[in-house]
Each structure stands twice: as structure tokens, then as C-alpha cells.
Amino acid sequence: MKMQQDLDKLKKTNKIFIKTFGCQMNEYDSNRIYDSVKKIGFEKTEKYEDANCYLLNTCHIRDKAKEKVYSEIGRVKKIFRSKKKPLVIIAGCVAQAENQEMLKREPYIDLVIGPQAYHKINDTILNYTKKKKKIEETEFDAVSKFKYLSKLKNEAGKVSSFLTIQEGCDKFCHFCVVPYTRGPEYSRPFKQILDEAKYLADNGAREIVLLGQNVNAYDNQGYRLSDLILNIEKLSEIKRVRYTTSHPKDMTEDLIEVYKTSEKLMPLVHLPVQSGSNKILKLMNRKHTIEEYLSTFDKLKEINSNIEFSSDFIIGYPGEEDQDFKDTTRLIERIKFINSYSFIFSPRPGTVAENLDLIEKKISFERLEKIQTILFENQIQMNKSLNGKVIDVLVENLTDDKSKAFGRSEYMTSVIFNGKKKDIGKIVQVKIKDSNRNTLFGEIIANSDKKVA
Ligand code: SAM
Ligand code: SF4
Ligand code: F3S
User: Which pTM value belongs to this model?
Assistant: First the structure.
């Protein structure tokens, strides 16, 4: 009875605003948090100033992550100076890493909740509204989390929808915080994922992006990522399937073979390599060699020469010498990655590489600039090569000013063209007229909605 009264009270005016940092998995989580707190009367708002619950879904991957959160809290304090203080919740990977320290350091924070404890978010909020007791929930309990989330409808309702299939990491690369912030590798039950995919498809999703910190390590009672791809693409509403982020060591034969049989798997493979030098890969504890990486590349190209690669690079890892950097540039020239992320190594607390001797900052910056010049040039050339060609575009939305439509090519490149609202969710054919590094511009010539890949 008392619980019902609390709920009714909450339902009157509650609005939650979530600010999301970091990877796609955080974006998926933020959507699922919205799905969860809806049950206790919180409505999603895009206007932070309207919110009476402000949740920061944080990322810990690179430098100053913690400080960014505290400065964001400073901003929130200012926004709400002349208003009633909102309920402030810190979620995500910084919450996991810092746990109760955050409550001690910043009294403006009310609750701290780690990524594997989101099944407790409703109870935590209700408990706080009753007892005003600040708590942190940072237990790793992926099983309970997904059991709970699978009972809630995924209401993301987007043409391209994320679907987390795997969480956590057992690989312990020496530079990376993920095994500490997301916990051990866990693969969601096969059927649970298929049910969620079906619900997404029934509610407007036309592309499913399967997510995991090590998505291709997915293994649930013998079902692998390849099985998921082949089963999800049986859903007639789904036109495209993607997966990210994969680890080179887990590019197993069954996954490579899927590129022969799948009809809807997109021909872009995001396969982070980090460095082109075997010496550095070993120092990073990456558990594979460049030769193995190239063998995967060759096998995939043999299956379909239209397959392209994208990657992540860490520049200036401790021990990186000129020759190692040259090996990285050589690899980029060989593979011609069409889109990549590159960052200077950032020492992370609690990792093996935390206290290693850093290479000179100036050298790291010079190398980053060089590598980005090559990577960006590849991107520009790839886009230019499409000038005058007709490509398939999955239409995701209208542009902000509603004058054009926005979609993506098979290679994930943004495409802006003269589409209409009625095209959203369809595959259309667009003739490319112009491009810059990140975007293609064109004109619609037909609505194909045909088989892709
Ligand atoms: N599991 C994926 C893999 O094995 O490649 C990567 C997931 S991680 C969330 C995303 C990217 O962040 C990594 O590929 C790496 O390039 C980058 N990253 C992770 N730790 C880093 C660090 N300490 N400094 C710089 N970049 C880092
Ligand atoms: Fe981090 Fe390495 Fe795990 Fe990727 S495989 S999440 S880089 S520890
Ligand atoms: Fe960041 Fe955590 Fe993703 S550290 S990159 S939000 S797994």
C-alpha cells in the first residue's frame, strides 16, 4: 500500500534526463534505463532543465574521465541553482570504478550504480525517495540484469537499433579498464536475444546492431555470433545486421563463413588492431599477431572483395619505437581501413600499463597526426570513389531542419539526400553527387527495398 502511494507520488511529475558518454553499449544501457524507470513513473525528457532526475551514464576508457564527471556535476549544479535540486545518479563505467568514493567527494551526487546492477535501479530510486539514504550498487550481476531487462520491452524504437548480446571482457589487454568496469565475459541466452530482436523489428527496427565489448566472443550453450546473425536475419522486417566490437582473436571460421551465406550482414568489419607491430601487440597483451590479422583480412576479401575494414589504434604505447610506428602505417596502407578511431595511449588506473614509462608527448602527437592524415585520406578517397555511383541507403530519419533525409550506406557512412518522411525505414537508391570526409550527399533515384549485401 505504502509502496503504491510512493509510486503514485512519483508518477505525478517525474522526468528523467540521461546524458550518455562512451560507447554504443552505454547508449543501449541508457535506453534500457529509460525502459526501467518508466515503470516507476519517470518520463524521458530531452530538455535537461525540465528534469527532476539527472543521470550521467559515464565512460572510463581514457584520461580525465573521472574529472569530466565532476565538472559535469558542477554544470548541473549551476543549471539547477535557482530550482529544486534534481535526483542525481551516476551510472556507467566511472561509477563502477569509483563507487562510494563519488558519494564522499561530491555530496550533490545521490546514487551511484554500476553497469551490471541496472536491474536494481528502480528499487534504489524508490528507496532513496523514502529514506534519503545514499547508496552505491556496483555488484557484477549480469545474469540478473539481463533477466530483469528481458522482461521489459525495449522501446528504443529506432530504425537502427542496438542490441547488447554480450558484456564484459576476460582478455585483460594491459591498457584497458573494461575488464574492471564491466566485469567478466557474459553471453546472454540465445532465445532472450532473439525475442528482443523480434520485438525491435515489430516496433520499427530495420537494422540491428549486435553489441558487446567482445561481441564475437559470444558463446551461449554452443550458440555463437554466427548463429545469432543467421537467425536474426530471418526476421523479414530486418534489412541489415551489423555487430561491434569484435576482437581479432575471436574471428572464428564460423563467423568468417557467415559472410558467404548471410544475406543481410553488412560488408564493413570493425576489427580493432591497435598497432601494426607484433612487438607492441605482445606488450599490450593482445593475444594475436599481425600475420593472424592479415590472414582474417585475406579470407574475408576472398569471400567478398567488397568487404572493407575499420579499426581502432592506440598511438604512443610505452615501448613504441619508430619502427613499430612504421609497421602501423604499413598495415594501414595495406588494409586501407575506410574509417578508424585513433587515440594517444592514456594510462588507466588499475591496469598493467598504468605506471609504464611514457614516450615523449611531442613524439606521440606527431605520430597521431601522421596516422590520422593517412586514415582521413583513405576515408576521403573511399567517399570520392562513390561520386556518380548509385548506392543503397537505409533511411533513418529526417535532418534536424526536416529539409532532407538522413541514412547510412552499407559501410555506415552518413548520407544526406532529398528523401521524405515516407522513406524512413526503407532502403532507397541514392545517386552520390558530392562528399566530404564523413558524409555523402546525393539524390534519391528509386525506392528499392530489395535484398541487400
Ligand atoms: N574490445 C575491443 C577490442 O578489443 O579492440 C575494444 C573496446 S574499447 C572499449 C574501445 C577502444 O578504446 C579500444 O579499441 C582502444 O583503441 C581504445 N582504448 C582502450 N583503452 C585505451 C587507453 N588506455 N588509451 C587509449 N585508448 C584506449
Ligand atoms: Fe579492453 Fe582488450 Fe577487452 Fe577490448 S579485449 S575490452 S581492449 S581488455
Ligand atoms: Fe567507456 Fe565503459 Fe564503453 S569505459 S567505452 S562506456 S565499456
Answer: 0.95
